[in-house]
Amino acid sequence: MWNVLLSFSGLVALIQLLFLPFFPESPPYLLLQKGDKAGCLKAMKQLWGEGNYHTEFDDMMKEKAVTKGTKIMNVLEVLKEPSVYPQLSTMLLLLLSLQLCGLSATASLQESMIPYVSLGVAISELTSIIFCSSIIDRFGRRILLWGGYLLMALILVLLETSLLL
């Protein structure tokens, strides 16, 4: 019954894919990143219902004023910034601990292949982190979520079809 369990994650991805277009963008994203005040208020009403959201809107406007002079950095600029080294070292420690947890050793692989599998997993994780963080700034989270769920659902349908054939 493992194929049914595998299909369940595809079903969840399909449900998320179907409902994602009906959700509004994040109000802070619309106001702070896009500068869309009307869209921000519309998203607040859609998310939280009718009400007076001027306090929240004013707080976001204050945050926008504070961050007005700051520049949005790309991945390479973040890596060169000394103030983010503690956060980067924490992320690196988490990635290394994931590599050393022994998941590759429990995958029924030949012992000589385990170092190569671990190295391949680490390289693919690092590549995906760099790639995803750079395209999030360019395209926005909503489009990437939609595309990711669509791709995940498609791959799981292909995998399930290949297993049945």
TrEMBL record:
Q: Which Pfam families match?
A: Sugar_tr
Write down the membrane topology: Multi-pass membrane protein
Single Gene Ontology BP annotation: D-glucose import
Q: Which residues form the signal peptide?
A: none
Localization per Swiss-Prot or TrEMBL: Membrane
User: Which key words are in the record?
Assistant: Membrane, Transmembrane, Transmembrane helix
Major place of residence: membrane
What protein is this chain from?
Answer: GTR9 protein
